[in-house]
Amino acid sequence: MNKVYLEEVDSTNLYAKQNIADFQDGTIIHALSQTSGRGRFERKWIDFGKGNLFLTFVLKPSSDFKSLYSNLTQYLSVKLCKLLENEGLTPQIKWPNDVLINGKKIAGILSETVMSGSALKGIVLGIGVNLSASEDQVSAIKERKVTALNLELNKTPDLELFRDNLCFEFFKDYNNFLSKGFIFIKDDYISRACFLNKKVCVKVFNKEVSGEAVDVTDNGELVLLSNGEKSVLTIGDIL
């Protein structure tokens, strides 16, 4: 595992994409400050400044894109949950990869692919974890309920230790995930799912789809039941 440390950057994912040729497989890019973080569907990632985790994994598993690479965000969400459980917390996952504590979002995960024609140049898998914030900061965000680890633990976690533990967790089973895909983490994922057997509304680009979330497929897709018919969603966000 190679490590790149930055004092400040616009986005660790953007930095990784712009310099993808310079990085070996398994490189991690950690910035102390990130000025223009992004979430899924180009949403702005609201961060709370220094003391929080801004990290990107640079992955080069093959020269061609495989469908299981789309599940890397879910793999990372499970690994983050396990790390939070070691702190005595009970995190949950909202499809596809939101990690929540007490119904409040604590992390954002974004995977982006860099291609050159049909050749895969690499995958940048970014994660931002709220480790340190005030009650006033989190309550000021009106778009969604959010939290930070220091508020849940009543103490400020060690940023470097948290980063190193997350990287260890990620790479510990990474090769097994690459060989088996989502099925390798399916039980772990479902055991932490907060959305199953509930009525949900899913935003898929510019439209919304509603129904009961009844299952997750072996490929990590969401199965919705609506008006007696099942549909399978490969992309989207539960609102």
TrEMBL record:
GO molecular function annotation: biotin--[biotin carboxyl-carrier protein] ligase activity
Alphabetic keyword roster: Ligase
Stored Pfam families: BPL_LplA_LipB (PF03099)
GO CC term, one of those recorded: cytoplasm
EC number: 6.3.4.15
Name recorded for this polypeptide: Biotin--[acetyl-CoA-carboxylase] ligase
Residue intervals of the BPL/LPL catalytic domain: 1-178
